[in-house]
Write a structure and sequence with these properties.
The protein has 7 helices and no strands. It is mainly α and 138 residues long. Helix 1 runs antiparallel to helix 4, helix 4 runs antiparallel to helix 5 and helix 4 packs parallel to helix 7. The protein is elongated and about 50 Å long.
Length: 138
């Protein structure tokens, strides 16, 4: 990994982590996903006490999130940090794809900076939603 890629990963992680518990405000569907992950960590079942189906169809995200709840306090920051980490992994995967496709350095740089600043990825990797995992894994 070149120095500028490491700097870009660090910049992205810091940019996404800044004010994580304040911006954006809590969305209505973040709590059911976090609750499903919390309940899975306690009982091993994907049960949502708040109603709805959040986290029960796409079970991999609550399972992933419950690992963070085991080792860190159950807070909004912890849940959103898990999504930020998926964004950093997604950026690294995009770096590897650019390497495999043998893009020029400047083209790779533009693609990666575009990923970092694209509004959809900024929002998608700052909230508690399974879309962060979908973008990263697929």
């Amino acid at each position: 990994m070149t120095w500028w890629r490491g700097c870009l990963l660090a910049f992205y992680a810091l940019m996404m982590s800044f004010g994580l518990d304040r911006v954006p405000l809590v969305l209505f569907d973040e709590t059911p996903y976090a609750d499903t992950a919390y309940q899975f960590g306690l009982s091993g079942h994907f049960h949502n006490l708040l109603g709805g189906f959040s986290g029960q169809q796409f079970f991999l995200y609550p399972a992933y999130l419950s690992v963070f709840f085991k080792f860190l306090p159950v807070t909004l920051w912890t849940a959103r940090f898990a999504s930020v980490l998926l964004g950093v992994i997604g950026l690294w995967v995009l770096m590897r794809i650019c390497d495999e496709l043998a893009f020029k350095r400047f083209t790779t740089f533009l693609i990666l900076v575009g990923f970092c600043l694209y509004n959809t990825t900024v929002v998608g990797f700052r909230i508690v939603r399974p879309e962060a995992m979908v973008v990263t894994l697929f």
